[in-house]
C-alpha cells in the first residue's frame, strides 16, 4: 500500500512538472518610460521555445535617423524596424534568450536625430508588470 501511494505521488509530481514545462505557456511584460522614449517588452515561452517583442516609441518631434539599444540582462537586441505608426519594433521568434527572473531590467539606448550631428544616449529602467 505504501509503495502504491509513493508511486502515485511521484507520478502526480511528474505530470504536474510536465504540464508546467511543456504545455502551459508563460508570459512576462516589462515597461519603462522617460521624457524621450516609451518601451515595452512582451516575452513568452511555450515548451522549449521562447520569443519576445520589443516595442519602442520616440516621444519627440524630430525624425530619428539612427537607433540602437541594448537590454540588460540577457535580452538580445538588433536593428529595429519602424512600422507605419511610428513604433520601432524588434522581434525574436523561437530559440531566443528569455529572461523573467528580475523585477527590473535596464535599457541603454543611443539615437541620432535627423539633421543633427550629436548622438543622444539614455538609460531607462524597465519594470516587470505582468508574469503569468
Question: What's the layout of helices and strands?
Answer:
Layout: H1 2-23, E1 26-33, E2 37-46, E3 49-58, E4 64-72, E5 81-82, E6 87-92, E7 104-113, E8 119-131
Antiparallel strand pairs: 1-2, 1-8, 2-3, 3-6, 4-7, 5-6, 7-8
Structure, described:
By secondary structure, this protein is an alpha+beta fold. The protein is 17% helix and 52% strand. An eight-stranded antiparallel sheet has the order 4-7-8-1-2-3-6-5. Strand 1 (26-33) and strand 2 (37-46) form a beta hairpin. The chain is elongated. The model has no long low-confidence stretch (mean pLDDT 83).
Distance between the termini: 38 Å
What is the number of helical segments per DSSP (H or I, 4+ residues)? 1
> What's the β-strand tally?
8
Described by the principal axes of the CA atoms, the overall outline is elongated
Radius of gyration computed on alpha carbons = 20 Å
Strand content: over 45%
Report strand order across the widest sheet.
4-7-8-1-2-3-6-5
Q: What ranges have pLDDT less than 50 throughout 5 or more consecutive residues?
A: none
- Mean pLDDT reading: 83
How does the helix and strand content classify structurally?
Answer: alpha+beta
Biggest beta sheet attributes: 8 strands, antiparallel
- In sequence order, what are the helices and strands, one letter per element? HEEEEEEEE
Classify the helix fraction into a percent range. 10-25%
Amino acid at each position: 500500500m505504501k509503495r502504491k501511494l509513493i508511486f502515485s505521488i511521484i507520478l502526480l509530481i511528474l505530470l504536474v512538472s510536465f504540464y508546467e514545462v511543456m504545455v502551459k505557456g508563460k508570459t512576462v511584460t516589462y515597461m519603462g518610460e522617460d521624457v524621450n522614449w516609451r518601451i515595452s517588452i512582451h516575452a513568452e515561452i511555450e515548451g522549449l521555445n521562447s520569443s519576445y517583442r520589443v516595442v519602442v516609441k520616440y516621444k519627440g518631434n524630430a525624425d530619428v535617423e539612427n537607433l540602437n539599444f541594448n537590454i540588460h540582462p540577457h535580452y538580445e537586441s538588433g536593428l529595429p524596424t519602424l512600422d507605419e505608426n511610428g513604433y520601432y519594433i524588434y522581434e525574436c521568434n523561437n530559440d531566443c534568450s528569455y529572461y523573467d527572473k528580475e523585477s527590473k531590467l535596464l535599457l541603454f539606448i543611443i539615437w541620432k536625430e535627423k539633421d543633427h550631428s550629436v548622438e543622444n544616449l539614455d538609460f531607462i529602467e524597465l519594470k516587470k508588470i505582468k508574469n503569468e
